[in-house]
Design a protein that fits this description.
GO molecular function, one term: biotin--[biotin carboxyl-carrier protein] ligase activity
EC number: 6.3.4.15
Protein name: Bifunctional ligase/repressor BirA
Largest sheet: 7 strands, mixed
Structural class: alpha+beta
Bound molecules: biotin
Helix content: 25-40%
Number of strands: 12
Distance between the termini: 41 Å
Strand content: 25-35%
CATH superfamily of the largest domain: Bira Bifunctional Protein, Domain 2
Shape: globular
Order of helices and strands: EHEEHEEEEHHHEEEEE
Number of domains: 2
Catalytic activity: biotin + L-lysyl-[protein] + ATP = N(6)-biotinyl-L-lysyl-[protein] + AMP + diphosphate + H(+)
Radius of gyration: 17 Å
CATH topology of the largest domain: BirA Bifunctional Protein, domain 2
Family: Belongs to the biotin--protein ligase family.
Length: about 250
Amino acid sequence: AQRIQSTVMGSQLKILGTTVSTQEEAKALAEEGAPEGTLVIAEEQTGGKGRMGRKWFSPYGKGIWMSLVLRPEQPLHYTPQLTLLTGVAVCRAVRKVTGVMAGLKWPNDLLVDGRKICGILLESAAEDEHVRYCIAGIGISANLDPGDYPEELTGIGTSLKIEAGEPIDRMSLIATVMEEFEMLYELYRKDGFQPVASLWEALSVTLGKRVSIQTARGPIEGMADGLDASGALRVRTDSGEQIPVFSGDVELRR
Ligand code: BTN
């Protein structure tokens, strides 16, 4: 195991055995005034949450299920940028610690050869459109074996252990995610979203691909061209129209 070298991120730790969801634990701590950088980690979640009301499979001891408390001083509509920042931090850490060349799928999935290895869920509490706190939830399928996956995830999910061919030291990966996060968060605070967006674009498996996106306003199909200043995905449709997509489920097309 390795020490966490970052000074703020992960400086307060709460490590749990079984819990419903680290998101809920982190929210409760944030409501009690927990400082930025407070990190909640669990061995197992019985009610792990994914995006769009989905469940997140979180078996005991097999993954990294954690939630980080953030207190950015910014308007609520900037928070999608933090989802992308979190993705960059995890992607860089995964590559560094395990050598697995994972890539980012907009807005927040980490994929290896099209299979999901990590999901990110950012939730915020706001007052008058200003952020009170954000919870960055990170779920990394670290040491799952092929037989661990329920039927509905077979072929969709993979793990770092499966991809690297050896078990992952979870503590080193957690420490490196915190260090990368801290470095990027400082960059973001100092220079804004643009440098983070460039790093995201360089790690992306979405850009330059044909995508089909289910949005609340219906499906959009076209080429994924890049990120705009807010973090929205710029999609160029066949009629040449540029559409910023703020949320939705992306399907990569051949
Ligand atoms: C997704 O891809 O839909 C996001 C998945 C986020 C899962 C993580 S695991 C730690 C934290 N606690 C939760 O209940 N969810 C997030």
